[in-house]
Amino acid sequence: MSTAMNFGSKSFKPRPPDKGSFPLDHFGECKAFKEKFMKCLRDNSFDNSQCRLQSKDYLECRMENQLMAKEPLERLGFRDLMDPPLSQADQNTKP
Question: Which PROSITE patterns match (predicted)?
Fold first, then answer.
């Protein structure tokens, strides 16, 4: 019995990357944010909990430049870094 490899029988169908996979930043649009994040990691013995603000900024840059799908930051684990919505009392005291 011979096994013939017929690559023409199945066509390749591209699919979007799985969550967590995204294109490389070939044009360096978010390089400064990445460098700040990497420096923070090095300065903090790679304890990423100390670099959450830099991580958030980097992911925001990637989303703004279509280098990853837009996601609410709350869903990416940054709920505690978000500005709280203005309460009705705060809105009434604004000029």
Answer: CHCH (PS51808)
